[in-house]
Amino acid sequence: MSDIEDLASGKGSADENFPVASALIAAKHRPAVLAFYRVARLSDDVADHPCLAPSEKLRRLDAVEASLTGVDEGVPAAAALRRVLTERGLSDRHMLDLLTAFRRDAVKTRYADWDELMDYCRYSAAPVGRFVLDVHGEARTTWPASDALCAALQVINHLQDCGKDYRDLDRVYIPLGALEAEGLDVRVLAEARGGPALGRVITGLADRTAGLLSAAKPLAGAVRDLRLSLEVGVIHTLAESLVRRLTVRDPLSERVHHAKAEAVGVALRGAAATLAARLSARPERQAEA
């Protein structure tokens, strides 16, 4: 085990808010997605480690890149991903973009406005969706809708974890401009309970995230692979549910995450709605052909 892997938090795909290579994904594709996830999880653990100096985080993230690009074999998970990419004829570009985001996490703790946050999501979220689409051989025309979905998922995570991120990492993804517009500064995130002003900030950002989900809505129908389409539909429905919760729950004092039973129910509704939409669209597609 490398010194980087000693830093692993122990979190796995089952601990994430949204499905990662679930049983909906075809078995032949799951190993590649999980190999990508393991490197992303490990790199995230490095970037979020509370005891490492920024310079040390950057050094270890450089080591991940070295093993990913074949300079050495020092980080086994990254070397394993490199072999998977080679075997499948896939680019390492998406993981390299993701490492850009983790390097940013190592040194940057504040975001001025929504545009700056979206630029971060371009590296921290979009590469994940693009990689999964590439694994399935989907067209790049699906990327814009995927980017919107992935950005929405990222912002949802930031909003529901805003108190924990500030307390544990002194990291604030809520745009400073949004806080300042309500006369707040980041110290409000250390409170046990959010007041009306913070509630307005969270609701405003949740509304903007709902806009991202609207832009992402065509993705499930545009994806050719049925099983991936169902996975996208599940994720989209889970995200819509969480956005609604963020408009009525205080992330500093209330649970926003779905409990497992809740998540299963929402996921089933999402899969059923996606399947029904695809079946209803089939005659139109046949007529076009």
Description:
- The chain is an all-alpha fold.
- The protein has a domain at 94-280: Farnesyl Diphosphate Synthase (Orthogonal Bundle).
- It contains 13 helices and no strands.
- It has helices spanning 30-47, 54-68, 76-88, 93-107, 114-124, 126-135, 143-160, 162-169, 176-181, 196-216, 219-222, 226-246, 260-288.
- Helix 1 (30-47) packs antiparallel against helix 3 (76-88) and helix 10 (196-216) runs antiparallel to helix 12.
- The longest helix has 29 residues, at 260-288.
- The chain is globular, with a radius of gyration of 19 Å.
- The N and C termini lie far apart (53 Å).
- The model has no long low-confidence stretch (mean pLDDT 92).
SSE blueprint:
Blueprint: H1 30-47, H2 54-68, H3 76-88, H4 93-107, H5 114-124, H6 126-135, H7 143-160, H8 162-169, H9 176-181, H10 196-216, H11 219-222, H12 226-246, H13 260-288
Helix pairs in contact: 1-2, 1-3, 1-4, 2-3, 2-4, 4-5, 4-6, 5-7, 6-7, 7-10, 7-12, 10-12, 12-13
